Amino acid sequence: MAWFKKTRKPRAAPAEKAVRVPEGLWVKCPGCQEILYNKDLATSLHVCPRCAHHFRIGAIERLRTLFDAAWREHDRGLISTDPLGFVDTKPYKDRLKSGLSATGQRDAVVTATGRIDGIETEVAAMEYDFIGGSMGVVVGEKIARAIERAIAGRRPVVIVSCSGGARMMEGTLSLMQMAKVSAALARLDRARLPYISVLTDPTTGGVTASFAMLGDLNIAEPKALIGFAGPRVIEQTIRQKLPEGFQRSEFLLEHGMIDMVVDRRELKATIGAALRFMNPAPDVTSADA
Length: 289
Description:
CATH architecture of the largest domain: Alpha-Beta Complex
Helix content: 25-40%
Low-confidence stretches: 284-289
CATH class of the largest domain: Alpha Beta
Strand order of the largest sheet: 3-4-5-6-7-8-9
Number of domains: 2
Distance between the termini: 119 Å
Structural class: alpha/beta
Number of helices: 10
Radius of gyration: 25 Å
Oligomer: single chain
Number of strands: 9
């Protein structure tokens, strides 16, 4: 007879482990609702391979898509001094800090020198995640300096716009940048150097009203929102229903506001071909000297 008796309990089936998918691996396309693997999306330059929806990309990623290899960034240390001591729902200084932590940039544009299809070029790429890509004193100064470097080095200029317009936190000082950059582009034109403007989603406000529309060649990405005031403001002003697709790049191309609509995957080659066609004329003044 056994000294003890072991009661056998039925074994419970092991609970199924929940499979957790790491965040950031997949993204849903807002155009066709397709679920896309992030690495595949990056390979296609953040353009949906199914419906060609163009996702917004940051300034550094934009430079990577345009330059052949490494580039030299300029004026990285410039930062706004909050000249008006502006406060709305929170102080402007706090917004600047939030923009820095979100993007790693000190303001809403990155300027750099590098080669596009072998052609040394000055490029300014705007950063929408920094206070909506708004144009303040630092943005105007960095773009103006990029243009001056282009004139001094006999190089073409490419500006990639992605902006909500002038920065209200800097008041009239931000509006002055419209004239400042436009004047610098006029000097570039007198030096017979090409300027290509690339308009991406969105390009609005004071940026559209100034340098974004002054290119020798104005190129837009597909379905980019491009305009000055918003559709609602325009409808309330003119008291009329706006046409379908109003303020989208295809509509603007049809009505002569821009020159080309180019898929991001073909943008670098298109800019390279245009720059070779616009080959800068030799500096006659320096040659005579």
